[in-house]
Structures
1.
Amino acid sequence: MVEADWRKVVTALHRQATRPTEDQRSIAAALGLRLSSRTPEPVAAALLKRRLQPALRLAAPRHFSEAEYEYLAGLADSVGLSVPNPDGLADRDELDAWIWVARARQSITHLRRLKPRADDVVVAVDRRTGGDRHGVVTSLGATGRLNFKGGRGGHTWPQFVTEILRPGETEYAEKCRLAREEVAARITRPHLVSQGDLKRLAPWKVEAPPGLAALEALTDALNAATEERPMQVVVEKHPALLANMTSGHHGTWVIPQVRFSDHYVADFLVASDTSAGLRGVCCTDR
């Protein structure tokens, strides 16, 4: 989820960091689990998962180390959050949930400080180099992250912002120029997929492998079809059937009826986003 209004992000984060949802309370009551009205939503989720683990055959709870708890304690102290002692935490999922709550508090504090809006320029600490990093804000993520113009995953967290400039303020134009230069410097491989490309591809993205219904529909079509069209229809309805023709860790898309110039049409183009860029395979009988 992305949002343009920082106040809406703060409101949502505050709600999640201070109380469970009504659904969580209802489930806890049905399970006989005591859940305080002040239990943060992520912590409530971790507690419910722990209670349901045997019944739902979920993965066994993971233990946390002393160093992990020390990190939580230090982070919680920095934002004034009271967390259970090590013996009061059931597993790593619960510990991770408290870390999320502490980070949410951090984001709330700094979003209120900055009041960021689209087209603001921020100067932030570059955690890799320790120097300054510049970015033009486009939106906010659900966790308070500031997203930058230029795509390619450009962003920062509000706690790392040291300066913010509004359009029309002194040095705004100069900071925008620096932000553009930094975006250009990061694009060492311009053939890689941008955020704009991903938005345009979104209607054809395959989110999961084919299920039983898709496989059975394909089998029925193979057994009954006397021409190509029924097969085309089945695959258009169940594009996951073709998604494994190429692999990419960042997404796979199956696009029907892709035209190449005036003479060639592929039945399907299967594309995947890899660390080397976008790669594709054409499927056609022509």
2.
Amino acid sequence: MRQFLFAAVALSGLSLGSAADILIEAESFEDRGGWKLDTQFIEIMGSPYLLAHGLGNPVEDASTTIEVSEAGTYHVWVRTKNWIEKFDEHANTDTAPGTFKLAVGGTELEPTFGISGKDWAWHEGGTIDLTEGQTSLALRDLTGFGGRCDAILLTTRADYTPDNSSEILPAWRRTLMGLSEEPIDEGSFDVVFVGGGYGGMCGAISAARMGLKVALIQNRPVLGGNGSSEIRVWAKGNTPPGLYPIGDIVREVEDHAKASPGTAEEFGDEKKHRIVSAEANISLFLNHH
């Protein structure tokens, strides 16, 4: 069988600064607080981002620490959007649901983010004076209704506007994060499954048990797709045991939730992960795109 050379890019960044520019990918925050990693729209806007999904209750701050190598006045940029503006052209500060603030070194900046722009864009955050050494950043959700933060840029260049390309991890971001242009070589595989829902997960197990070397790539932290704790759609179906081998594998990994949606625990994320990880022929890449 033809073998494929596979390379994967992890969905977690580093915050690494040059003398005048510091780029912080939101997904690299040390403590996400109540903010969640969202990887569903990388093909559209180029990156994972943090989402404040509190069902109307502001979530806990996401926080991290950065290293400032050069003291000075930094201009702040935040990449975000007003996610309802495409539905309501009159959406404004009063109606935007996903607003949030940014605090740098404990000082909350004046602008409110997430109030304008139906598309992802860099929004100015004003300026702040920073001394050399470590300083803190915090994302402060104001509404609990879907605030979104892709990245933060601090720069000493007053006339600089960040590139708003939605290309996946563009070169300038790679440079500031110290990432190589060359993808990581993860070796050769007989078959690669992209997506760790029931189809990809059970297909990977089946192929592995037939002796194939398998890569299973899932852009979420858990397996199961709609049948995971994140979505909570229960597994149903009455295929008789033994009729189709793949159906028997579904029975191994399925949940036994009493309702759809049920509780997170009922959907057995840990069980799915344990069964897949037990297959020696599967290389599992969670949180990868």
